[in-house]
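Annex B.
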Amino acid sequence: MATARPVKKGPSGPINILPDIPYKKTEATFKMNKENDIEVGDNMMIMNIAPSAFFTNCAELIAGDRITKINAMPVKTKAEAVAALKGCVGSDVRVELLRRQFTSPVTAERAKKIGLTRLDGFTYFLLTCVKESTDPVSSFGFTLKLLKNRAHVIALDPKGIASIYFCIGDALLDLDGTPIPFNDIEFVRGYTQKFNKNNRFTVVIERPLGTQALFMYNMLFKLMLPQESDVEMGPDAVLIGKEAANMHRMVFRRLKPRSVYGPRAANAPRNEPTLKTLDVSEKAKNIRVASSAMELKIASDIEDEDELKPVDRKSHAMFDDF
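PDZ domain-containing protein: predicted structure tokens.
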């Protein structure tokens, strides 16, 4: 019988090495060619993998995995793990690991396809998202901030599907092997909207792991978060704003802006200003928005309508300073 998958919430404080997400037990085999092929931290976590070992002798490991056993022998301290690994130089090693669920190592083929460049202090892994039949049909449930070719997860809806797979601080580098275009949030939005239909996609994740990388990323993360505001909006107003934004996005998506490099009429004066700024397609000319899509009922905290007082209609100019 299928069991419900745990739902997590993103951390409210700084990004941590150990995100608040379930881990699973897994096994991996690798060969210790050199003592510095992997670096183990105080929390038994693999903090670094030598660049020469990424896709060769340590291809089954992910920086961020936590070692629990080496060759079937439990290890509980960094000293025990380092000593055991030194004794295995030149031979194969079988390790039991705790690994973030739904993740696997990035293959050499995938890394080459997306032009992956690894940064010091960061970990990289492949995350597989699968929509189960019990998952609700809804929005994916995360907020992204796009910086160049990385989509950073800055907020998660605890009720959304994204909260099962992603952590705050994850950076999406591609989707199903297609690198994220430069500052193109519509590419990501359109892809996640297809999730309800396709039921599956994979993404390469970049996440800070080293102390210096965590410090620098948290500084960047503060800049990516929306600025705090003292103004609180009611849920009805928020809902109206969301509906209006969705409607405008659907309308403007069908409009084609005129290119400054477009053809120019031969008889048009060179200095005559162009009044027409939008080349509207035939489809855009016939856009119709149902009135029902533009109406939302606003809840009231007054039970008896007789208690409502008439509004004194005045010019809006009276409220310019509000």
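Residues 23-100 form a domain with the Pdz3 Domain fold (CATH 2.30.42.10). Residues 235-252 form the longest helix (18 residues). Further annotation is deferred to the next reporting cycle.
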